[in-house]
Amino acid sequence: MTSIDLNSDLGENVPDRVVSDDESMLRLVTSANVACGFHAGSPEGIRSTLESAVAGGVVIGAHPGYRDYENFGRTKVEIDSATLQAHVEYQLGAVIGLAAAVGGTVAYVKPHGALYNTIARDERQSKDVVAAIRAIDPNLVLLGLAGGVVLEVAERAGLQIAAEAFADRAYQPDGQLVSRTEAGSVLHDPVAVAERMVRLAGEGVIRAIDGTDVPVSAQSICVHGDSPGSVAMAAETKRMLQDAGITIAPFAGV
Question: Of 21, 25, 53, 128, which one has the fewest beta carbons inside 10 Å?
Fold first, then answer.
């Protein structure tokens, strides 16, 4: 692999719940997954992040989630298909509109949190999310977990897809993410995180929590904006990848 994207989940701050340093992350990443208001963020905060992304030449993605603001979108919601599709369509419309207002465009969609993890396994909710994307703009790229069900569903439906790996999350031997409820699920050491991503880019594997190597083919790497030490992890990951001869470049919108 000679090129890979670096992304982060941003636009999630409100005055009483500041979780990320968006300005610093936007100087490091090539793609920004911008919250749509259901799990985090406010219209004015989301707009500000979008404006900064446009100014910095960072590719914009919409980051819709369950309507679960209290739990930051990290609790699975049992929801019928019509409602889930409408909720995703509503969120995409909001961010597409705000992006247009600041001179930007949305190039891709990366679902958030519990919705992201659910559609990595659940075909029915995957179909609902894909239907929403197709209804709003079938040219949007879907970014999802490498090996996830939703990528298969999206590709069958004619969407462009991209696979993602996580720099700061532990992996199960089957390629799924370790639940945030388990110890060691979120990683914080910038050097260890960066070394994992250099192996991903160079060898196509990530070390799982049990010590085995999991094959992972990904076009984008995520460092969560709300993880403690996220800016340091993103900076070290970018530096080590570039030192290894890997170009950091967006997967969409170019």
Answer: 21
Residue at 190: amino acid letter? P
Q: Do the bridges between strand 141-145 and strand 161-166 make them parallel or antiparallel, or are there none, so unpaired?
A: parallel
- From the CB of residue 65, how many other CB atoms can be counted at a distance below 10 Å? 26
From the list 175, 176, 195, 133, the residue with the least C-alpha distance to 158 is 133
Residues ≥6 apart with Cβ < 8 Å to 181: none
pLDDT at 227: 87
**Residue 150 zone, left/alpha/beta (φ > 0; ψ -120 to 50; rest):** alpha
- Measure the CA dihedral 177/161/157/34, to 10°: 80
> With left for phi above 0 and alpha for psi between -120 and 50, is residue 196 left, alpha or beta?
alpha
The 3-state DSSP class for residue 239 equals helix
Show the low-confidence residues of the chain (pLDDT under 50).
none
> Are 33 and 1 spatial neighbours (Cβ–Cβ below 8 Å)?
no
How far apart (Å, rounded) are the C-alpha atoms in residues 59 and 124?
29
Spatial distance between the Cα atoms of 36 and 63, rounded to a whole number of angstroms: 6
Q: Which helix (H) or strand (E) holds 134?
A: helix 123-136
What does the chain come to in residues?
Answer: 254
Token pair for residue 189?
A: 């050491």
Predicted pLDDT of residue 228: 86
